[in-house]
Structures are given as structure tokens and as C-alpha cells.
Amino acid sequence: MEYRRLGRSGLQVSALSFGSWVTFGAQIGDDVAESCMKLAYDSGVNFFDNAEVYAAGKSELVMGRILQKMQWERSSYVVSSKVFWGGKLPNQIGLSRKHVVEACHAALKRLQVDYLDLYFCHRPDPNTPIAETVRAMHDLITQGKVLYWGTSEWSAAQLMEAFDVARTQNLIAPTMEQPQYNLLWRERFEKEYAPVFAQHGLGSTIWSPLASGLLSGKYNDALPNDTRLQRHDLGWLKEKTIGSEAGDKIEKSRKLSALAAELGVSQACMCIAWCLKNPNVSTAILGASKLSQLEENLKAMDVLLLLTDEVMERMEGIVQNKPV
């Protein structure tokens, strides 16, 4: 396993991390979740990603029970939560000081930890001044309940405002962003965020490096019955991934599969390794509903050396979407 600094912070995170979105507390049983976390940890993964909204809090409950059972040294792993969607009532959603603080306390209880290593603002909140959110995060850090705070899917302009607020009010600035980034989704990460990376050294924890499984090749020929896209509550994700808006993504996936076969590696590992080639990527979050799936995707570290300039150019020739 390779370890990378989270932006300009001193925290080191494994280049591959493990997340619980749509799996823990919903798609898989607790026994499978435990096996996956143990495999990840034994393979060198030290960052486990979660959020208050995942399975309406059940995901954090499952992860918390596993962390307690494993009894790993607290200094050996990094655990996160995210705040935004906590419920349906007015103060159970968004990034007000009230919800940010209460959601943190609730996550600590569910995860059974004394502090969160990483705490993300899961989306921007147009109804709350950014200054209010920055100060709330600053206070949680000074209280020792959070070590680093960050954002997820904020625009570059919103991130710059957060940094400006932190600078002018002498508050702690965000350390990391959690954006979607993969071979089919690149514009924001490679173009919009470029000045933020350059000026502030923002770290990144990438979600969906396989475009919700599309880049794994599992949908190249048909839609399997045992995938997340078959869940009735994820119809929006199915439409986004392989629906009418998918365009020629599946055809590109098939061509990437052929290239991976030439290299003698899985398509999933090749596409995950492509993400890791970007120096602004601190860690790529893996998700898995099966132990065998995680075992395979963890091999992406071995594929990095195979992605020579020539191979990278061939991949660019297939996707043809490099931001200008």
C-alpha cells in the first residue's frame, strides 16, 4: 500500500480507502461488511469513509460495531462522517451551526469513537452563510471532536470563499474535498479545482472512481441481477449510470476492457489506477458488496507501474474527454 499526505496536512492516508455508501446497513449483511473492513485493513487501508445519510445512520452503526469488535489501535485508522442530510425536519438538514454540531455528536455515538478524523460538509448549503459553517467546524476542531474538516462537491468558488473566511477570521480552513472523479467524470476535478489545488494544496478523497461500477466492466454486456443499480431506491443512480443519459459510456467501457485485457489486468484495477496517477488525488474510495470484489480492486496498486505514458495516451484516445 502507498500512503499519501492529505493535501498539505501532515495526515497520511492510504492511496486506496474503503467506503460504506449504499452497502453497509442496506445492500450487504454485517458479516460481509466486517469481512471487507478486515480485508481492507489487513491490506494496508487506513481510511474508512462514512456519512450520516448512508442507510439513514445504519451504515455508521454497522461500522462502529465492527471497529469496536476489531479493537484496532485508534491511531492506526482514519474514520470520517459527513453532515448535510440528517432527517426531514428543518434543522435536520443543511450546514447550520446547530445541525453541524448535533450531527457530529450523533456520528461519534454511532461510530463509537471519541473523535472524527475527517468531517465533511456533504454538499454546499445555500441557506447557511459559509462563514457560519466554517466557524462551526473550527469550533469542533478546537474542542477535539474533529481533527480535519472538508467539503464534498462544493464549487471552486465556494471553496475559495471558505478559505477567505478562514483567513480573514483566523479560523481553521478546510483540508480536503470529496468529489466524484473517474475516467468519465473529469471536468470539475481537473479544470475547476485546478487553482484551488495550486493555491491552497487541498487534499482529495475520491468517490466513485469506477463511475458507480460502470468502469468495472460489469455492465458491458448486460445488467446483472445482484448489483446496486437493481435496487428500487437507486433508480436515479441507474438512470445516471447506464440510462438514457449515459450516451456512449458503455461503448467506451468496452474499449477500456479490451485495453485492460492487453495489459493482463482487470478493467476495474486499470481505471482505479488511472485515478491514482493524478497527483492531486490523495485517496480513492473503494466500495464493495462482495469480498471477492474488494480483493480484486485492491490490486489496483500493482497496476500503477503498467500505466506508462503510452498506455495513458491510449486511454485518453478511448474516452476523448480531457478538459481543456
Fill in the CATH topology: TIM Barrel
Distance N to C terminus: 32 Å
Class by alpha and beta content: alpha/beta
**Widest sheet: strand order?**
3-4-5-6-7-8-9-10
- What is the chain-wise order of helices and strands? EEEHEHEHEHEHEHHEHHHEHHH
Helix percentage range: 40-55%
On the 0 to 100 scale, the average pLDDT is 94
Q: Name the CATH superfamily classification.
A: NADP-dependent oxidoreductase domain
CATH architecture: Alpha-Beta Barrel
CATH C-level class: Alpha Beta
> What is the domain tally?
1
Sheet with the most strands, sense and barrel status: 8 strands, parallel, barrel
Strand content: 5-15%
The number of helical runs is 13
Spans of at least 5 consecutive residues with low confidence: none
User: Given the C-alpha coordinates, what overall shape results?
Assistant: globular
The rounded Rg comes to: 19 Å
Strand count: 10
